[in-house]
Amino acid sequence: MGLAFIAYPSAIDTMEAPNFWAVLFGLTLYMLGIDSAFSMVEATSTVICDTPTGKKYPRMFVAFALCLLGFMFSVPFCTNWGFVLFDTIDHYLCVYLLLLVGILQCFGCGWGFDAPDTMEKSDVHRTSLWVLSGTFWFILVVVGAVFVALEQVPLGLLILVVCLLFLSLLPSFYFGRSLGFWGWYNDIAMCGVRKLGYSMSMLGRDDPTKRLWYEPLFVFYWGFTIKYLVPCVLWLILCSSLKSDVAEPYGDYAMHW
Length: 257
Known about the structure:
This protein is mainly alpha-helical. 77% of the residues lie in helices and 0% in strands.
């Protein structure tokens, strides 16, 4: 915000023909806003229109309703206290919402996608996957929050890795031992991300029926990162940001902001 509304306008004021550059800069920001609005409205309207209730309404009407709501929610930013509102929302959305969306996307890819189909294969699949999912997220949330609060993040990372190995992965393998290691690895440990990983790596095949040598390595790297590593990192960053804002509120604003 400081760059777009303070630094650039101040620099433009010192240039030759400042009015021309100011109009050009304003049009640039306007076009960026329109571009962002397209992506947000289209993504949201697509999700709404894919639901049983949303299918009853024309897509144009859904887009109009979203634009109208966006306009109504934007009006407070034009008031005298709109700058404070914009500054706080800009900070907290960029910090918390982006991190939370990242965690939820990893959850959707690594823990939600393909999980129902895997659980339907057998009782062993269901138990092993439930144990892995429940223990992983419980340990991540509790250990991450506690050690960030204690300001012992490096120690928390070490304990988190140990707990996830001995209290999540190994118990899950114990309940799924009848599948064998590779069966457990493919169906449980890499549930969801394995199928998504190969759907991407197969795009580089000359022969769609022949798996290339590097694909299992890519799938392991991508799947492990999305399913296990990224959620841990994002959760620790989210907890650290929350602790910092509680200890010292952003911009010295009152706590209710």
